[in-house]
Amino acid sequence: MPSRTLNIAAACLLDDAGRLLLVRKRGTRMFMLPGGKREAGESALQALARELAEELHLQLPEAAFTPLGHFNEMAANEADTRVAADIFRAALRHPVAPAAELEALRWLAPQDPRGDDLAPLLRLHVLPVIWPHA
Fold it and tell me: Longest Cα pair distance anywhere in the chain, in angstroms?
């Protein structure tokens, strides 16, 4: 049984072509949704806004986000850790670039193969919700 749980907020950011933005942190191999850990006293949307500003220099109003669900899964890059994730969906209408601890961005289309470099939360829970027939 994992020794700790991280409370996170993350976003499914979709471009006009319906592709999903994935990010990879420096020194890791797993791609995941942009977002991150909630700080004490932060709502999920407050944490998401802070993380997107830090990681992608992205400013979106809270009204841009639609709740997708709450999911629990093993963390991708931290041993003996689970994540409890509030996931939101939003349209991304302009280019972004990695900042802060992000090393790479990748776009995933519904028909793209699902490699073993996708975080478990993304692969097992989020993708089946946003693309149930892919």
Answer: 41
Q: Residue 24 is encoded by which pair of tokens? A: 């990879």
DSSP codes, 8-29: EEEEEEE-TT-PEEEEEETT--
Which amino acid does the sequence have at 64? A
Residue 93: partners with Cβ closer than 8 Å, 6 or more residues away:
15, 16
Spatial separation of the C-alpha atoms in residues 111 and 100, rounded to whole Å: 30
Length of the chain: 134
SS3 37: strand
Model confidence at 19, pLDDT cuts 50, 70, 90, reads very high
Put simply, whether the predicted model's pTM sits higher than 0.85 gets the answer yes
